[in-house]
Hints:
Blueprint: E1 9-13, H1 26-38, E2 42-51, E3 56-62, E4 67-73, E5 78-81, H2 92-103, E6 108-109, H3 116-123, E7 136-138, H4 142-152, E8 154-159, E9 169-173, E10 179-182, E11 187-190, H5 193-206, E12 209-213, E13 219-220, E14 223-234, E15 237-247, E16 262-265, H6 272-293, E17 298-305, E18 311-317, H7 326-346
Parallel strand pairs: 1-2, 1-5, 5-6
Antiparallel strand pairs: 2-3, 3-4, 7-12, 8-9, 8-12, 9-10, 10-11, 13-14, 14-15, 14-17, 15-16, 17-18
Protein name: Glutathione synthetase ATP-binding domain-like protein
InterPro entries: ATP-grasp, ATP_grasp_subdomain_1, YheC/D
Keywords: ATP-binding, Nucleotide-binding
Amino acid sequence: MKNNSPGPLIGILTAQKANGSIAGNGPLFIELQKKLISLNGVSFVFTPEGMTKDFIIGYMFSLDKNRWIKDKFPYPDLVYNRIPFRKSEQNEPFQALISRLKENNIPFFNPCFIDKYELYELLKNHTVMQKFLPQTILVEDKKDLFSFLKKHTTVYLKPRQSAKGKGIFRLKLKNPSEIQLEGVENSESYKSFDHFWENWKRKLFEKNYLAQEAINSAEYEGYRFDFRILAHAEDNGYTITGVGIRQAQEQEITTHIPTGGRLLPYEFLQSTEHDQFIQTVVPFVGEALSEQFGFFGEFSIDAGVSKTGRYYIYEANSKPMSFDETEIEERKIAQLCRLFLQLTVTGL
């Protein structure tokens, strides 16, 4: 196959579900295949379990037959990590695959999921980035969390390793004693912090929660909004592929579309200040991630701005979700394929 194709062979790495079927973003994989073929390249999707010493068992999408075809493939020229489950990156097959790729000098990018607290610790050591970080602590001690809540009055509780707004709560100190906990779907009140802690400490520890100061976010038409920034590596730096706006609606906890958020074009709210913030943080975040964890060719940033005009980075994602903005998603496909071709020629 490699010999018959003048362009590169790209391996798209995903994971197996518990029932043995293949997980992942099928529509993205198909669009990448279409674009690569137009550039004289080709791709296949595989899991770590499909690796053997001499070849990889994977799946190629046939444009002619409009279906996935299982086959044996040689080791690719580059691997793009789209594993959707954090636990899959911690198992033995994944670690064995990474070792094999390194042995064969095969470029591999987006090496891991990003832990929210590790990102905070990483960026707070950068003088430029410090001012863009909401104060954050690990939930490790009852006294420390209560002191943090008294200081900020309202804080967000987030699992260190989660995505799409899952498991996020807003904790409020209503008066000297009453505590209110707000989730995406419901709200609970506790007569005291002690009462809250007794009910929640087990979950907070099991899911490795952090606490982050709540920002008094800027609003548009009465509802707060966030920036979703997509970036890709380009020419030894990072370029902004697209920016979207996500706005809270029925509930104020998250702005994610699946939980009722609203999509707005960036142009509705674009300003010189917004542009300058985004252009400042993208290269810093990309370079910091790559220095710490290995090469990141792609990432997204969730960010916001307060009513006083101060900007904040909330988190970064190594496996960006599909953007609902068609033009951003199209640029994403083009940027990824350009990066594939560049790295198979120059390496990392």
